[in-house]
Design goal:
Number of strands: 10
Radius of gyration: 22 Å
Order of helices and strands: HHEHEHEHEHEHEHEHEEHHEH
Helix content: 40-55%
Oligomer: single chain
Structural class: alpha/beta
C-alpha cells in the first residue's frame, strides 16, 4: 500500500514538473502589436506602458509596429497568432469597432479576440497649420465655403476615429472635403505641418506637442467640456457644431482562446500600470484618461462601440470593399 502511495505521489510530481507552462506565464518576452505607424496615440500609449508592464510581469514587452490598411494588418496578425498570451494588440476604435461597419469583408471577426482592458481614452481635436488664416471653426467654415474645390483633410487612416470624426464634422457643418489617408497619425501630422491639406481632426495626444509648440492651431475639441490642458480651445458645441462628441479609445486585446490565467495576470498588471500616479499623470498631460476596466467591462464597451459606429458609417454612406 505504501509503495502505491509513493508511486502516485511521484507520478503527480512528475506531471506537475512536466507541465508548468500555464502557471508560470509569462516565461518569455511578450510582443505587443501596434496596428499603426510610430507617432500616434496607439504607439505612444503602447510605449508608455510597455516597460512598466515588463517590470510587473518579469518579462520584456516588445512593441512591434504593423501599420497599414486602417489597422487591419495588425489586427489580422493578432487573430492569426497562437493564443498563448505572448502576442497582444494595442487595439483601438478603428480596427476593433469602426472597421466592422466600414468594410464589407474583413480577415478577422469580433470572436477572434479576447479584450483585456482599456488603457486610455482621449478626445479628438480639430487642428490646422499655424500658417492657416483660420483662427476659429467659423473662420475655417468660411474658408471652405469660399473655395470648396481646394478643401482636403488628412487622417491616420481610413476607418480610424480621426477619419470618421472628420466625416461627422462635414455632415454636421454641411461642408465638402477630400479625404487624404496616411499610415498612422505620425505621418498625417507631419503632412499637416508641411501644409499638405486644409485641416485634420486628430487624436489629441499626437497633435498636443505641436499645439503647445505653436506649430498647429487647435480650433475645437470633441469632448463634452473644455480640457484643463487646453482651456482656451472651445468644444465643438461651443464652436457651433452640435452633436459632435467623440472619444477615441485604446486598449489591450489578446487572441481568442488565450488562457484565462494569462488574461487575468495581464489585466491586473495593466490596471495597476495605467492607474499608477506616473502613467495616469502622463495620460492626463496628453489630454487622456486612464482606463483599467475589467475584461468583461471592456468587452461590453467594445460591443457598444461597434453598434454606435455602424449607425454613423451607414448614415455617411461610407461602406466599402476591403
Amino acid at each position: 500500500m505504501m509503495c502505491a502511495h509513493r508511486w502516485l505521489a511521484a507520478g503527480a510530481m512528475a506531471i506537475a514538473i512536466a507541465s508548468p507552462a500555464q502557471a508560470a506565464w509569462p516565461e518569455r518576452p511578450i510582443t505587443l502589436i501596434v496596428p499603426a505607424a510610430p507617432g500616434g496615440t496607439t504607439d505612444i500609449s503602447a510605449r508608455l506602458i510597455a516597460d512598466k508592464l515588463a517590470a510587473k510581469l518579469g518579462q520584456q514587452v516588445i512593441v512591434e509596429n504593423r501599420a497599414g490598411a486602417a489597422g487591419i494588418i495588425g489586427a489580422q496578425a493578432l487573430a492569426r497568432a497562437k493564443p498563448d498570451g505572448y502576442t497582444l494588440l494595442m487595439g483601438n476604435i478603428g480596427p476593433n469597432a469602426i472597421n466592422y461597419a466600414l468594410y464589407k469583408t474583413l480577415p478577422y471577426k469580433p470572436a477572434d479576440f479576447t479584450p483585456v482592458t482599456l488603457v486610455i481614452s482621449v478626445p479628438n481635436v480639430l487642428v490646422v497649420n499655424e500658417a492657416s488664416p483660420a483662427r476659429s471653426v467659423a473662420d475655417l467654415l468660411a474658408q471652405v465655403r469660399q473655395d470648396p474645390a481646394k478643401v482636403s483633410f488628412g487622417s491616420s487612416g481610413a476607418g480610424q476615429s480621426p477619419h470618421l470624426s472628420a466625416e461627422m464634422f462635414k455632415q454636421r457643418a454641411g461642408i465638402p472635403g477630400t479625404h487624404v489617408a496616411y499610415k498612422g497619425a505620425g505621418p498625417a501630422v507631419a503632412a499637416l505641418l508641411g501644409q499638405q491639406f486644409t485641416f485634420m481632426i486628430d487624436n489629441l495626444p499626437s497633435s498636443m506637442p505641436y499645439i503647445q509648440a505653436g506649430k498647429l492651431r487647435a480650433l475645437a475639441v470633441t469632448s463634452d467640456k473644455r480640457l484643463a490642458e487646453l482651456p482656451n480651445v472651445p468644444t465643438m458645441a461651443e464652436a457651433g457644431v452640435k452633436d459632435m462628441v467623440v472619444t477615441a479609445w485604446f486598449g489591450l486585446v489578446a487572441p481568442a482562446g488565450t488562457p484565462q490565467d494569462a488574461v487575468d495576470k495581464l489585466y491586473a498588471a495593466t490596471r495597476d500600470v495605467v492607474r499608477s500616479p506616473e502613467i495616469s499623470e502622463r495620460f492626463k498631460a496628453m489630454g487622456g484618461q486612464a482606463g483599467g476596466n475589467t475584461p468583461a467591462e471592456f468587452a461590453a464597451f467594445i460591443d457598444q462601440e461597434r453598434v454606435r459606429w455602424k449607425s454613423i458609417v451607414d448614415a455617411a454612406g461610407l461602406v466599402q470593399e476591403q
